[in-house]
Amino acid sequence: MTARPYPLHENYPRHVAIIMDGNGRWATQRGRPRKLGHLQGAEAARRIVRAASEFGLSYLTLFAFSSENWRRPGTEVAELMGLLHRYLSGEHRQELEELDIRLRVIGQRERLPDTTLRQIERIESETAHHKGLNVVIAISYGGRVEIATAARRLAQKVQEGEMDPGEINETLMERFLETSAFPDPDLLIRTGGEKRISNFLLWQLAYAEMVFSDCLWPDFDREAFLAALNEYQMRERRYGALVSTG
Ligand code: IPE
Ligand code: IPE
Ligand code: MG
């Protein structure tokens, strides 16, 4: 199904990236285990994917697990991996089919459990022909390691004589990042009240508009998403140039 009930409104972002933060606090505030917050957080992610598809966005990147999140207690890491496993399987698959969503994953795949890795590969190939919203999930992702890896690969090319150091510029660098197939995010949303990037898409966010919300991720809904999109629509993007006078 490719029909979209909501046409793309003027001045909507093409690519929205979200730092889905605040699951643990959401649960703690209710006297419940953090695990429940993550479970509700996964539901919120489903909701927002559906909304992004209805709104006619082209790309939605979700920060699900950072390269630093491995430092959390083993039980929490296992719970999060279990949730990702569930998210990438079963009923959710059907939803991807129904909404014509193409799903891709960025991050350090070599650190993921084998079963998760195989599941990711399967879902990426099964949805590769979909033409609707592109959903990018960042798992075990860190912006610095991504840039360092790109630099290492470039250095190898130079060492092998395939490339001259003088050729290295921003465009070439971008081709070596994991996000080479996607445009840069226009809008970054972070829920959970913190006002920081936490090593997310360091290169790609250079000129993104940022919206920080105090809403904890499990509470983030369609209305809150729309409010962030509306705020984006009121921003003026200048990219270092002067205001256009028309
Ligand atoms: C975001 O929620 C999910 C992940 C980082 C995996 P948190 O788990 O960081 O929740 P808080 O920030 O502790 O509330
Ligand atoms: C950022 O949240 C990572 C994800 C949402 C996946 P964190 O909760 O890990 O970030 P910090 O520790 O508050 O910077
Ligand atoms: Mg957090």
Structural write-up:
The chain is an alpha/beta fold and 246 residues long. It has one domain: 3-Layer(aba) Sandwich (Undecaprenyl pyrophosphate synthetase), CATH 3.40.1180. 40% of the residues lie in helices and 14% in strands. It is built from eight helices and six strands, in the order βααβααβαβααββα. A six-stranded parallel β-sheet has the order 3-4-2-1-5-6, with helices on both faces. Helix 5 links the parallel strand 3 and strand 4. Helix 1 crosses helix 2 and helix 2 packs parallel to helix 3. It is globular. The N terminus is likely disordered. It binds 3-methylbut-3-enyl trihydrogen diphosphate (2 copies) and magnesium ion.
User: With helices defined by DSSP (H or I, 4 residues minimum), what is the helix count?
Assistant: 8
What characterizes the major β-sheet? 6 strands, parallel
Number of strands: 6
The kinds of small molecule bound in this structure are:
3-methylbut-3-enyl trihydrogen diphosphate, magnesium ion
Gross CATH architecture: 3-Layer(aba) Sandwich
By CATH, the superfamily comes out as Decaprenyl diphosphate synthase-like
State the CATH topology: Undecaprenyl pyrophosphate synthetase
Backbone shape? globular
* Helical fraction: 40-55%
Strand composition percent: 5-15%
What is the rounded Rg? Answer: 19 Å
Identify the CATH class.
Alpha Beta
Class per helix and strand makeup: alpha/beta
Uncertain segments of ≥5 residues (pLDDT<50)?
A: 1-7
- Average residue-wise pLDDT: 94
Oligomer category? single chain
> How many domains would you count in the coordinates?
1
Strand order of the largest sheet: 3-4-2-1-5-6
Calculate the terminal CA-CA distance, rounded to whole Å.
40 Å
N to C succession of SSEs: EHHEHHEHEHHEEH
